[in-house]
Design brief:
CATH topology: Peroxisomal Thiolase, Chain A, domain 1
InterPro entries: Thiolase (IPR002155), Thiolase-like (IPR016039), Thiolase_C_2 (IPR055140)
Structural class: alpha/beta
Strand content: 15-25%
Protein name: Acetyl-CoA acetyltransferase
Helix content: 25-40%
Largest sheet: 5 strands, mixed
Order of helices and strands: EHEHEHEHHHHEEEEHEHHHHEE
Pfam families: Thiolase_C_1
CATH architecture: 3-Layer(aba) Sandwich
GO molecular function: acyltransferase activity, transferring groups other than amino-acyl groups
Number of strands: 11
Keywords: Transferase
Shape: globular
Strand order of the largest sheet: 1-7-4-2-3
Radius of gyration: 19 Å
Number of domains: 1
CATH superfamily: Thiolase/Chalcone synthase
Length: 377
Amino acid sequence: MALSDCGRVDDATAYALHAQAARRALADSGLGREVVDGIASAGLGTLAPVEVAEYLGLRPRWVDSTSVGGATWEVMAAHAADAIAAGHADAVLLVYGSTARADLKARRRTANLSFGARGPLQFEVPYGHTLVAKYAMAARRHMHEYGTTLEQLAQVAVQARANAATNPEAMYREPITVDDVLTGPMIADPFTKLHCCLRSDGGCAVLLAAEEYVADCASTPVWVLGSGEHVSHTTMSEWEDFTVSPAAVSGRLAFERAGVGPADVDIAEIYDAFTYMTLVTLEDLGFCAKGEGGAFVEKGRLLRDGELPTNTDGGGLSAQHPGMRGLFLIVEAVRQLRGDAGEARQVRRGGGRLPEVAVVSGTGGWFCSSGTVVLGR
């Protein structure tokens, strides 16, 4: 696995970031490009992943272009693992790259308020119900239903920033306080600016390979123990409960298939486009009871040396967020499990041991989809 250059990248195309990440991931694996017979990619070009494969000079016999927002990469990882187990592919490259920030700065595109106004979305878009507004509405419902406070939500951002402080690849590393979060510019009530993810450039790649390649790998293997996926809704009126994310299903399936439970998890990498996403996903994965997420996060449990180190690179709130960030979660989980995160930010559990089990949970759309993968050494 590997990242491309990330953060502020003004002199590269999205295709170039794909290629840079792919080359680095192959170098990290120690395997040659000739072993890659599968590719999974989404979000770039008219015929993704065909265009990406051509750019990389690959002719895969297995492809996946599943696109379910930020959860895309966890779902693709599950599909790739199944394909390898079935003998349909030997080595599948998951690769992503985006110049979302640079394109806005250069005015090659504008910020999107919605994903379109056709189909079911036509009944919401004309009323100005933006993506951030959908998450804000869900957060307000949780606050109303369970007494979750703005201060508790702000703790998610504060702890993400503290984790980013030791990550040289994070865009923002300076400490922030709960007061900084609460007094920032309002984006969509109750979310101020620091409740929301940043916008960056960047790419990453992950190579999933059959067990027979382990002996030839240059790095310690990390195993896919189990996975699950679930889609919930696209129209807010069809979402039965704003306080329950699709991770409630994908997480249960992943843990069951992995043969482990939340108590066995050493680290969690959770999609965090907004602070509420982290809080409610922790509940739905079973780390605390429904409605207790606020109390859970306010005790410093998400810090690198906390009870449940979460988003150990700083997450989308502080490290980088170039769009569909789910693949970055897998990269960070692998780094931590292999002990490759660097001494300053490497998670150590009881007795100084390296983490052994990680849960990675991606979310797409506005809690529309979820993919959860359990990884282990």
